[in-house]
Amino acid sequence: MRRHLLKSTVAVMALIVASPAWAQSMDEGIKFLDAEIADMSTLSREEQEAELKWFMDAAAPFAGMDIKVVSETITTHEYESKVLAPAFTALTGIRVTHDLIGEGDVVEKLQTQMQSGENIYDAYVNDSDLIGTHWRYKQARSLTDWMAGDGASVTNPNLHLDDFIGIDFTTAPDGELYQLPDQQFANLYWFRYDWFNDPAIQAEFKEKYGYDLGVPVNWSAYEDIAEFFTGRDMGEGPIFGHMDYGKKDPSLGWRFTDAWLSMAGNGDKGIPNGLPVDEWGIKVDENSRPVGSCVARGGDTNGPASVYAITKYLEWLKAYAPPEAQGMTFSESGPVPSQGKIAQQMFMYTTFTADLVKDGLPVMNEDGTPKWRFAPSPHGVYWKDGMKLGYQDVGSWTILESTPMDRAQAAWLYAQFVSSQTVDVKKSHVGLTFVRESTIRHESFTERAPKLGGLVEFYRSPARVQWSPTGTNVPDYPKLAQLWWQAIGDASSGAKSPQEAMDSLCAEQERVMERLERAGVQADIGPALAQEHDLAYWNADAVQKGNLAPQLAIENEKEEPITVNYDELVKSWADASAASN
Length: 581
What we know:
Number of strands: 11
Oligomer: single chain
């Protein structure tokens, strides 16, 4: 170690003599590495210093510039704004204002800039759910073209795009990259590992249901487990077998656009998204043009699988969740499982992990290990092998065409800095939102894995690819996403039946697509609505072409329940990973 420090010091001293301006900036870089990074990086110290030197040199033409970027307010972005942005400024002389606002506000600002051409922000971290929007409107810079052209001089030669686990999600059907992943988290099944492994509880469950208590593979088993635990006293009062939220609020839309329908079996087979019908129920033709959302046009938004998904959501919310859950939003419901009264949750965003592992919580052991685990989400009766099984949120850097060239170049440098290999391991330890394969495999996460309840094991597993964001079938995410919470809210409040709510939703989606088609703003990759026929017609057409959606209704939607042992599941992941290496 002493020899390593001496070598670094000699290298730095030599550069101080050679370049006083560089030495001043690099001195700040050395302080940053010493204080913040140390060995929390996939790069050696020499490689870290070399990467920082590249950023400093590439940024020289922009020293003194002020730029503004924006992201939603989550732990990862707070770290970027409060720690990495000042470090980048000290190193490069580019003054960065990294604003933190609500997710909906990010989309609103983005939409305003796209419509007006006014440069509100120089770069946005917005969900890759907008990939279809960016590709069709051509308002976002193609990063593929950018890195080979105007952005070549400010593109890190050690960016290593193949190291990013979400690149498939930010690449459009034209093969071009439109967004750079910055943070990523999944929706997974969460359960009380300690309760599930209690011998007395296991015996009672098997006596009642005739099969072993374990991680539910399908919704039938999840439903049985929810019923079994609801009202049970585990020593500190009655608990609940399920947790969710139901307030008519924009966050209710995310609850469903974030792949709930595909978990039930809506859409077609396909990884990362179903084709030709995706998890929103939107169908595209062979040229990726959206042709419909309703069953009448070959879509699946109001098909039997979707109606089943909404029906089960409502049944479980009312029967097995705390009564107050029906009036909660996404952010209000998130911390509830940490309070020790919930046995399982189908739909847990792993961005809540940091809040679930705090010392002293009822769901934590005294040794710092959790009493809970993450596992793959169970699937509904319409689901088939080859379909996606859940959602991953991939917040990704996007630079719009309306941003002036020099500001775009400076912002691109910052975007690469906060997702660089130098800083990514440390950033991932803070926010637990992985985007690089090298970070996931870093030894520090092998050491920390037992305290993260299966999060690391999941991200190292072959199952990870079945979780993906919204795909490219959605032609205008901002316009269409806002329709969901209103339609689902009507079902949640009882104003409409599940079928009526989904009929209304698909009709509203098609009205938006019809306007886009009529306006021609998305040219030859925009919507081209199909002729209308009945469910039987479109199902026969799908089957004839080797597809699934829209499926016909299944008479008995309570299939045979299946569970698996969690420890055996994790072992199978490790075996599969070893076999592939």
